[in-house]
Design brief:
Layout (H helix, E strand, L loop, with lengths): L1 H24 L8 H10 L3 H12 L5 H13 L3 H29 L21 H20 L3 H23 L5 H22 L5 H4 L8
Helix pairs in contact: 1-8, 3-7, 4-5, 4-6, 5-6, 5-8, 6-7, 6-8, 7-8
Length: 219
């Protein structure tokens, strides 16, 4: 399992580096698929859909992701000490990931789509998408917390719904016209790499009985 995660992280890192270089050498110009998805979004914006997209996108920024990261850690721990350590670790993964992502964004300095196309507020440069990265990191941490607490069918269903939320936040940025599709893909790739690094660093400090806890019948 560890080897598979490392291979997956290496692939995501390679793809992220290639995408970042491609964006940089083209001076931020839209890549294949960017204009098509952007145009589609502009042509399919009924008021109800815009309201839903704005509500979804609002969950990918501000204090909420940090509160959810703390909640993920609290779910993962069995006693007070473990919960405190896991919550602090999850918060660190999210905060440090944001700092590194911001550094990449500043270095690449990709322009956003035209301001006239925006259907919500946005700030800063475009690549990688901050909302997409934040939501993906938060979703990954929540999935870790939920599946650490339980391996039941309900836990896996909850994990799937959490991942759908993370994806929806990223896609809402394209729909609202403030990001290119490749900005969102860059955020997802970065988050995948960062989460893998975080779990590999944290795994030795999480007791085995926490990581693989199974319900015991008759208790």
């Amino acid at each position: 399992m560890r080897r598979a995660r490392l291979v997956g992280a290496a692939v995501c890192l390679l793809l992220f580096v290639l995408l970042t270089v491609l964006v940089a050498v083209r001076d931020g110009a839209p890549l294949p698929g960017d204009r098509a998805t952007h145009t589609w979004a502009l042509d399919h914006r009924p008021p109800v859909a815009l309201a839903v997209a704005r509500a979804v996108t609002a969950t990918g920024t501000g204090a909420l992701p940090y509160l959810l990261a703390v909640g993920a850690g609290l779910l993962a721990g069995r006693d007070a000490r473990q919960r405190l350590c896991a919550a602090a670790g999850a918060l660190a993964v999210l905060a440090l990931g944001q700092a590194v992502r911001y550094g990449v964004m500043t270095a690449v300095a990709r322009p956003r789509p035209a301001l006239a196309d925006w259907a919500t507020h946005a700030s800063g440069h475009s690549f990688p998408s901050g909302h997409s990265t934040t939501a993906a990191l938060t979703a990954g941490l929540l999935v870790w917390g939920v599946t650490t607490r339980s391996r039941s069918t309900s836990a896996h269903l909850a994990a799937a719904l959490i991942l759908l939320w993370g994806a929806a936040v990223g896609l809402s940025r394209v729909y609202l016209g403030v990001h290119w599709l490749t900005d969102v893909l860059g955020g997802w790739l970065f988050a995948a790499v960062w989460l893998t690094l975080g779990t590999l660093v944290a795994a030795p400090h999480v007791p085995a009985e926490i990581r693989h806890e199974e319900p015991v019948s008759g208790r």
